[in-house]
Design goal:
Length: 134
């Protein structure tokens, strides 16, 4: 991991990470927390190592490497409110935004139903007038 830190120019924040072995593909995946991560709780910076030789197979960063990874990491972490500094004010703000979106959606449905009901009343009134006049 130190080689990747020097090559890619990021900061290693927590050396002790997770090590996962995938027997089907015969490699290890080692996760650490780095300056490329946007979540303090779930480190995502990782290297893939060959299980037999220990050779570096790949480096995977949640941000800064590929645009698609950066966008999907941000969307996922925003969805779960899991960003560095996710303290109480941020969580309250996210909860209020969820409530506002829900209220706006419900009021739109309510307005639509009222218009639909009003249109039915107008059509009924027009039909009654038409029948009376004929």
């Amino acid at each position: 991991m130190a080689t990747q830190v020097n090559q890619k120019g990021f900061e290693l924040l927590q050396e002790k990470g997770r090590l996962r072995y995938l027997a089907a593909k015969s490699y290890y995946q080692y996760y650490v927390r780095s300056s490329l991560d946007i979540s303090e709780k779930h480190p995502s910076t990782s290297v893939y190592l060959d299980a037999n030789t220990g050779e570096l197979l790949a480096f995977d960063a949640p941000t800064g490497q590929k645009t698609g990874n950066t966008v999907s990491t941000w969307l996922y972490r925003l969805h779960w409110a899991d960003i560095n500094g996710s303290d109480l004010p941020h969580l309250i703000f996210m909860a209020l935004m969820g409530i506002i979106i829900t209220v706006l959606s419900l009021t739109r449905v309510w307005i639509w139903l009222k218009k639909k009901q009003h249109n039915r009343t107008n059509i009924l009134a027009i039909n009654v007038i038409f029948v009376i006049n004929n």
